[in-house]
Design a protein that fits this description.
Blueprint (H helix, E strand, L loop, with lengths): L2 E9 L3 H17 L3 E8 L2 E11 L2 H17 L2 E12 L1
Helix pairs in contact: 1-2
């Protein structure tokens, strides 16, 4: 069974600025086993973003955010706004 995380959060900058930092962080995420499948913004609120990723487990994702939280916050991601929904198939 595969595990996925749908991550919803707010950003403090514009989407293109956040997206550049997001792309720069991908090697670090991949090394943690987190593979991005989709990222985008809400059509009616460009400050609300979504990322869908394949994750080894919720614990692995939580560990990544604990270790990379400062770097993630630098991207404009407002950490305290983060909502994670775990999915499986």
């Amino acid at each position: 069974m595969a595990s996925y995380a749908l991550i919803k959060f707010k950003i403090s900058n514009d989407f293109s600025e956040w997206e550049q930092a997001f792309y720069a962080a991908q090697p670090m995420a991949r090394s943690a086993g987190i593979i991005e499948l989709f990222h985008g913004m809400a059509e009616d609120d460009p400050q609300t973003c979504f990322v869908l990723c394949h994750v080894p487990s919720k614990e692995a994702m939580d560990s990544f955010f604990a270790e990379a939280g400062a770097e993630v916050a630098k991207s404009g991601h407002i950490l305290e706004s983060t909502e994670v929904t775990m999915l499986s198939n």
